[in-house]
Every structure is written in C-alpha cells, then in structure tokens.
Amino acid sequence: MSEADGGTRGFDPDVPSTARIYDYILGGKDNFAADRAAAENLMALQPSTRELAQANRRFLVRAVELLARSGIRQFVDVGAGIPTSPNVHEIVRRHQPDARVVYVDNDPVVLAHTRALRADVGVSAVDGDLRRPEQVLDDPELQKAVDFSEPVGLLLVSVLHFVRREEDPAALIRRYTQRLAPGSYLALSIASAGTLPPEEVAKAEAVYANASSPLTLHSPAAVAEWLAGYELLEPGLVPTVKWRADEPEPATLGSALAAVVRIP
Question: Which of 37, 54, 111, 197 is deepest in the core (most CB within 10 A)?
C-alpha cells in the first residue's frame, strides 16, 4: 500500500506496514511481528477480515479480466502491495499477451518484490505515493511504459481507505482520471464502515494508528458520492462479493465495496 509521507520511508520492521498486514491476512510470509500483531488485532475485532481480503483478490481478478477482454493493454496499479499470484500482469496476459503493467507503491518491501518482476518484459515498478497523483503519473519510468493517449486501466484496489476525509478522496480520484484517455477504466475497492457503530469503527481505525498509513472507514454513501459523474459498469457500487459474482456475504457489519467505471 502507499504510505502517508510521500517518499519511501526507511525500513523499520517495528512499524506495521499496511502492505505487510494485508500480506499476512492473505496468508503470505513477507511480514514481521509488528505486522502480524496488527493483523491479529484487526481480525479479533472483525473475524471476517481474512474472508473479505480474499474476496477482494477475487474482485481484482474479475475486474482486470473484464478490462483486458475489453481491449485494455496498459495498466497502472497504484498501491499494488506485495505480489500475490495471480498478480495483475499474469491476469492481463491471459487476454493481452503484450500488455504493459506498472506497479506503484512506496513500501520498501513491496518495491523489492515488484522490482524483481521487471525481468518480465512490459512490467515496471515505480516508487510513488497514492496521495500524489501528478508525481505518480509523471514518473519517468511510468511515462516510458504508458501511452496516455491510449486507454489505461487504473487500479485503486484496497487503498482508498488509507486516504483521510480531509485529503478529499473524490478530488484525488479526479486528479488521476483527468489524465486518462477516453475509454480508460478505473477499478476500485475499499473497506467501508458499512453499518458498524461508531465505537467499532474507532476500534478498527485504532489498529492502524501507528502503521505506515492510517485507516479511515468511509461510509458507503461517501464512496458513492466520489463516483458521481462517472459511467458505472453494472452492477454499480456493490459489496466485493457481489461485483459480477454471487458469493455469500461475510458475517460482519463492516463491508468492502467495489466498482468499475469507464472514463468518457
């Protein structure tokens, strides 16, 4: 996940990392004691956390496959996290063998892994912060890989809950999408407050208080407002388990939402 400070911070295994917490929740091994402790606290509060994370990965696969089948041949994955198979370039190349994929993150462990993927032709890794769209999109390596006169698949998957309300997530999204050619797509997913009472929201957010990026559980209504004016693909903004799927919903009052929009 992208971090809050705008540059790749020095590696500190005692500071929980959003990317490594997610890695642990998914059953990965690229994490440290502080990450595991934070993840266990979160799962104690929300027992369906692992189930929601796995559903998010399945949404990613479905969304990327849809975009690739629609002819998208270049993807920018912002806040990409530690590679988990199938990763974006593996999914895309089932349909677009010559596609180009740029992974963006500023967690040093993530970057070490994604830079190892550069042995694959058409795969790039860029050090960038989610909250600085212009810096991300103007990165020389990204500019070399992506032709912004052609449609792009922009992925903001499981990262926008690390953007505070005062940072204006709607404006942040527009700063990305206004740079994209007509016919581009944005796929996003986000952990949401759902119907959690305020005290439970506060407990969940507190787990990330000392992490590389703080957690903000936005309301479903707020997320819907961010997407006003975009062309939402069916079925619109829905739980990740219901986006072009019919999976059972986890037994939790919190939720994870997903949507794909087309840029006119």
Answer: 111
Spatial separation of the C-alpha atoms in residues 73 and 67, rounded to whole Å: 9
Contact between 209 and 37 (Cβ < 8 Å)? no
Which residues, listed in sequence order, are joined to residue 115 by a DSSP beta bridge? none
Phi then psi for residue 233, to 5 deg, are -75, 150
Q: Which of 227, 225, 243 is nearest to 235 (CA)?
A: 243
Measured between alpha carbons, how far is 96 from 244 in angstroms, rounded to an integer?
21
What tokens were used for 160?
């926008």
Please state the φ and ψ torsions of residue 16, each to the nearest 5 degrees.
-60, 135
In the chain, what are the domains? Answer: 18-262 (3.40.50.150)
- 150-175 tens-digit pLDDT: 999 999 999 999 999 999 999 999 99
Q: How far apart are CA 75 and CA 149, in angstroms?
A: 13
pTM of the model: 0.86
